[in-house]
Design goal:
The protein is an alpha/beta fold. The chain is built from 9 helices and 8 strands. Helices cover 44% and strands 16% of the residues. Helix 3 crosses helix 4.
Length: 290
């Protein structure tokens, strides 16, 4: 009887150890599958990341087609030979500043014509380059290339000694801040729906990825804004679903004086102009004049 019981116990123990052995092998296989899938996903995101950051769409129309008869089209060659397109118009009021406008990540200059019309109707000048790789311009966009282009454009524009307002919209806020951080003669830095850093945005959207290691174009506005000597105007909407308003608030905290923060209640990412952004820019400019 004792031998029979011992035999049954041994059989049960053997089955139990076999179950755990099989389970362990399946867990190892599952871990390998998960690791491979994660590696493939991370690799895809790394190789294609610029397609998520820079989203050029549509054909570039002419200023005349958009009702901007007094705006000229310039094809400007950058230091590396890349040619970019810019829309340009001189101020119609003597002594008025020119707005150097860096647009957002989607579409192109054609979709900003109503904004440009407000600028020109106020007597201000306009210089709006389209990012390399976008409609009307050659090359491929990257943080280094876009900032290099922006500095070239700014230096040419400011060479006349006329005042320049550097305006960044969404993606363009990082570029605008990079310019103002190394050009102390900028008249005013306007940040429309800005981000603390592109890498911060990526970390929020893809928390499962080591974005700090993978990001080619981190665009750390938060690190650059502390070096800005120009007055800073930050404008953001409370209902912005693209770049949360907390990014604008944090940048404002870091920015040195003089600075102003305008939070528009109920405004989203793309309707700040319809809610009075341009009036606020003009008022801010008037206040900082000697």
């Amino acid at each position: 009887m004792a031998d029979a019981e011992t035999g049954r116990a041994g059989t049960t123990e053997h089955k139990s150890s076999g179950f755990w052995a099989k389970s362990g092998r399946w867990l190892v296989k599952l871990a390998v599958i998960v690791a491979i899938a994660y590696g493939m996903a991370a690799g895809f995101m790394y190789l294609n990341q610029r397609n998520f950051v820079f989203v050029p769409t549509g054909e570039l129309m002419t200023p005349e087609e958009r009702g901007l008869e007094n705006v000229s089209v310039e094809l400007v060659e950058m230091a590396d030979g890349t040619r970019i397109t810019a829309w340009a118009a001189d101020p119609s009021i003597e002594g008025a500043p020119t707005v150097l406008y860096f647009h957002g990540n989607s579409s192109n200059l054609s979709n900003r014509s109503e904004r440009f019309r407000q600028i020109l109707d106020s007597g201000y000048g306009l210089y709006a380059p389209t990012h390399r790789g976008y409609a009307g311009s050659e090359g491929s966009p990257s943080e280094a290339a876009l900032i290099s282009d922006a500095l070239e454009v700014y230096d040419t524009l400011s060479a006349s000694g006329a005042p320049v307002i550097v305006h960044g919209e969404s993606l363009g806020t990082g570029i605008a801040t990079a310019v103002a951080a190394v050009r102390p003669d900028v008249g005013l830095l306007v940040l429309e729906a800005p981000y603390t850093a592109l890498v911060d945005m990526a970390a929020e959207q893809y928390p499962w990825l080591p974005v700090n290691l993978l990001m080619k174009d981190p665009m750390k506005t938060r690190d650059r804004i502390a070096s800005v000597e120009a007055p800073v105007l930050v404008i953001h909407g409370t209902e912005d679903r693209v770049i949360p308003v907390e990014h604008g608030r944090k940048l404002f905290e870091i920015a040195p004086e003089p600075k102003e923060l305008l939070i528009l209640e109920g405004a989203g990412h793309g309707d700040l102009w319809r809610r009075g952004l341009w009036n606020s820019v003009q008022e801010n400019w008037a206040e900082i004049q000697p």
